[in-house]
Structure formats: C-alpha cells, structure tokens
Design a protein that fits this description.
The protein is globular, with a radius of gyration of 22 Å. It contains 16 helices and 19 strands. With about 450 residues, it is of the alpha/beta class. The protein folds into 3 domains: about 140 residues, FAD/NAD(P)-binding domain, CATH 3.50.50; about 110 residues, Polyamine Oxidase, Chain A, domain 2 (Alpha-Beta Complex), CATH 3.90.660.10; about 90 residues, Guanine Nucleotide Dissociation Inhibitor, domain 1, CATH 1.10.405.10. α2 crosses α16 and α3 packs across α7. Strands 1, 2, 9, 10, 11, 12, 13 and 19 form an 8-stranded mixed sheet that branches. It binds flavin-adenine dinucleotide.
Length: about 450
C-alpha cells in the first residue's frame, strides 16, 4: 500500500494548487485523478491546423488576483478577448446592435434594468463572503428562488429578460433552480454583477495563451510522478487521524490527511466508511451542477469582424444565448464560441448531434449572417455527459440549502478536507475560486499535520 502525508483526490486546479503548496511546505503528497488527463473542467482541444482551443473554462479577469498571480508564477501569458465592433443583444423581442456596454433599448427598459441591477448589487454586497448563512437577511432570501426575486424586483419584460440571461450565462442554470441567497452570495463574491458578465473589466476580459488547461498542465509537470492519472477513487475509509483512499482496480493509498478537490455532487457519490455526518451528506444532495453545452465553431477567418461585429451576442429566446469571438491571438482561424445553458442545454442534449449542430449554426446565422452557415469545423462538449464533472460551470445551491447546511461546505471532517471552486469565498465557480480553495485546504492540512 502506498503511504503518504496527504492524498489529494482530483487533479483540477484546486487539487493541484493544494498539492503544490503542500510540497512547498515539505509534505509528501500524492494526487489521484480519475481522468487520463489533468485540468478537470479546464481542457484544451485542437483546432484544424493544430492550435489549442478551450472547451472548458477559459477566461480570467481583473480582480481575480489568485489565478492571475498563479498564471504569472507559472510563466504563462494572457491576451485580451476580441471585443471591437458591434455586439448583438435580443431582449423581449427587440434586437439591438450596439457598441460599448449598454444595448439600445427603450428608456423605460434601460431604467428598469439599471434599478434591478443596483438592487441586486446592493443586496449581494451585504452577504458575507465567508459565511453567507450567518446574516440577518439570509433565511428570507434563501427561502425563495432567484426567479421569484427577479419577478418581484424587475418591472418590465426587458428587465426580467436581462436578469434571466445573466443568470443563465453565469450559473448555466435557470433562475428558478437557484436560491436567491446563493445568487447574491455568488455575485457578491465576485464584487458585483458587472464583474461577472462584462468582457472589458469583467470575468471575460482575458484568455490564456496556449489555452487555460496550461495552468493545470504546468502545475502537474512540476509535481511530476506525484500525480497519478486514470485512478478514479471509489471509497474513503477514515478514522480521526488516518485515511485510506480506495480504487476499483488499484491498491489503496494511505495518508494522514486527504484533500477532496472534487465538486460537491461528485464528493457525495463516494462511499465513506464510516458514513459522513448527515449535514455534509444533506448538503451534497442539494448542490447540483449547472448544465452547459459549449460549442466552438471554426471558420477560415473571423468574417464577422469585417462585417463590423465583435462576435458577442446575447439573446433571451435563441438556444445559443451567449456567443463570443474565440479566435486565437494571431487572428486565424476565426472561432465563435456559443453556449447552450440551463434548459437550453437540456433540450440541445436530447437532439441528435446533427440536429444540434444545425440548431447552433441557425443561431449563428441569425446573429452574424449567412457566412456563419459554413464552418470548417464544429467542436462541442456537453459537460453533463462528462463522468467526472457531471455538469458545469459549477455547482449551485437550491433554496434553503446554504442556511441549513452551508457550514458543512468547508468544515473538515476528521482527516478529510474539502477543496474545489465551490468552496471558495471569492469568485466561487471560477478558476480563481479553485486556486483560493487549494491554498486554503493546503493551509488547513499543513496546520493539522504540524499539530499532530
Ligand atoms: C464550459 C465551461 C466554461 C467555463 N468558463 C469559465 C471561465 O471562462 N472562467 C473561469 O474562471 N471558470 C470557468 N469555468 C469554471 C472553471 O473551469 C472551474 O471553476 C474550475 O476549473 C474548477 O476547478 P476545480 O479544481 O475546483 O474542479 P475540477 O476542475 O472539476 O476538478 C476536479 C477533478 O477531480 C476529478 N475527479 C472527479 N471525481 C473523481 C474521483 N472519484 N476520483 C478521482 N478524481 C476525480 C475530475 O476528473 C477533475 O479533474 C468554466 C467551466 C466550464 C466547464
């Protein structure tokens, strides 16, 4: 049996960050990863001609200090998302092609969007990042869905449409799925709704040269043979001072501590002996993953740029509700990235691959004209079909989850420590949150080992 100080389950950014920190503190670490690659929700695929393209998480933005520090530390570079030209917005049956931040809508709709966003941002700023459940207004907000909050606080169809698209784009879920407290917690943890939805100055501002998976690849390279691939954990046997991680078809690994750096829903599927306390299990029963089908549609060149479009489009009625220019930094080939989110992902996943492709191309033609009908390549990933993600971008809380079981999200249980972007206090659901959680879990483990 392999024996180490700490076993890390999951070689996503969170697990790899925790492992790196522990190795730097002189600890003996083994990372076990189910897939035959590192990166988890970050994955590079190949464009025709060989360049990388991100099929999972990809953007970073200002305010994401932890991931930006890590990128710099690993010697990686970023480049700006293309945003010159007119963006397209379709709200409540009206199409607007606009430059700058604000779509051309009637003044009443704009005023309503502005007041609803202001209320949401003010509320989100009041939710404590570390303990959103420990706040006077928590229970009232947690007892309603985000859809209910929207219907109470946006007065116009456009206002409701704007917040609905924003929720789908940010959570890959429907507003009716989410607790309003979770939505506010998530928004507050990023510093406001604009930080989440904007390109310039927001979470979509920059991409990583060579693709985002390079973060995980560089971390894993430095860890060397401390990272073992193709090793899905099936069971965790623990006592207060010791843990044994079990696999279907390999000898177990014994350690003094374990960092479980997998999303809550997947952590809840492991067999624990003894069983985990009820609060922790109830929590993982109530934190489903969002659902997204991400498509990268490749053209010989970014033709929309010559036609005056930025490549950015949002719609409250087309299945591909969010589109960006995802062209590599050297400008070729042209790539449009389109997201089918929430209920649109449910519907798209039930189509045949050919019908789904046709649906996606129809939306791109609707936004950018007939040239969009003839891509040279079409790449798609349905993240709900990924056995070791089971959805994306991240987990969310159903109503009354945070206030009843929130404290179980991060609290260690015996030798078991929890990491992963869902356990972050800033930029939850983002790469930055994964890095934060890895640092925090490593500090916890190091302190526990030092005190033992
Ligand atoms: C399509 C898409 C777009 C996104 N866009 C962005 C974006 O633009 N910017 C951004 O910041 N974030 C984005 N995200 C979210 C971002 O990718 C994640 O927040 C981040 O990568 C999570 O890292 P993690 O280490 O917490 O979890 P994961 O990456 O999920 O890592 C968990 C690891 O555990 C492994 N694992 C699971 N079960 C087991 C098991 N039983 N045994 C062993 N290993 C196991 C998994 O294979 C995986 O490698 C996006 C995600 C997706 C999918």
């Amino acid at each position: 049996m392999h024996v180490v100080d700490t076993v890390v389950v999951g070689a996503g950014v969170a697990g790899l960050t925790a492992a790196r920190d522990l190795v730097r503190r002189g600890r003996d670490v083994l990372v076990v990863e189910a897939r035959d690659r590192v990166g988890g929700r970050l994955r590079n695929d190949e464009l025709p001609g060989g360049g990388p393209i991100e099929v999972g998480g990809q953007w970073v933005g200002p305010g994401q200090r932890r991931v930006l520090d890590l990128i710099a530390d690993l010697g990686l570079k970023t480049f700006p998302t293309h945003m010159a030209g007119r963006h397209i917005a379709e709200f409540a049956g009206r199409r607007s092609a606009y430059t700058g931040r604000i779509p051309r809508l009637n003044p009443l709709a704009l005023a309503d969007i502005a007041q609803a966003q202001l209320r949401l941002d003010r509320l989100a700023a009041r939710v404590p990042n570390a303990e959103p459940w420990a706040w006077d207004g928590a229970r009232r907000l947690d007892g309603q869905t985000f859809a209910t909050w929207i219907s109470r606080h946006a007065a116009t169809r456009s206002g409701r449409a704007f917040l609905t698209i924003a929720a789908q784009a940010v959570f890959a879920a429907e507003p009716a799925d989410l607790s309003a407290l979770w939505a506010c917690h998530y928004i507050g943890a990023a510093g406001g709704l604009d930080a989440l939805i904007e390109t310039r100055g927001g979470a979509q501002q920059d991409r990583i040269v060579g693709g985002s998976q390079r973060i995980a690849l560089a971390l894993a390279e430095a860890l060397g043979d401390r990272v073992v691939l193709g090793r899905p954990v099936t069971g965790v046997v623990w006592t207060p001072g010791d843990v044994r991680v079990e696999f279907a078809d390999a000898p177990p690994v014994r350690a003094r501590r374990a960092v479980l750096a997998v999303p809550p829903a997947l952590a809840g599927r492991l067999r624990y002996t003894p069983a985990l306390p009820g609060d922790r299990d109830q929590l993982t029963q109530r934190m489903p993953m969002g659902r997204v089908v991400k498509t990268n549609v490749v053209y010989a060149e970014p033709f929309w740029r010559r036609d005056g479009f930025s490549g950015q489009a949002n719609s409250d009625r087309r299945p591909v509700g969010t589109v960006f220019d995802n062209t590599p930094p050297d400008g070729a080939p042209g790539v449009l990235v389109g997201f089918l989110e929430g209920a649109h992902a449910d519907a798209a996943a039930r189509l045949s691959p050919a019908d789904r492709r046709e649906r996606v191309l129809a939306d791109l033609v609707h936004y950018f004209g007939p040239k969009a009908a003839d891509p040279v390549a079409y790449l798609e990933t349905d993240w709900a079909e990924e056995e070791y993600s089971r959805g994306c971008y991240g987990a969310f809380c159903a109503p009354s989850t945070l206030t009843r079981f929130g404290p179980a999200l991060r609290a260690p249980i015996g030798p078991l420590h929890w990491a992963g972007t869902e356990t972050a206090t800033r930029w939850i659901g983002y790469i930055d949150g994964a890095v934060e959680s890895g640092h925090r879990a490593a500090r916890e483990v190091d302190a526990a080992l030092a005190g033992a």
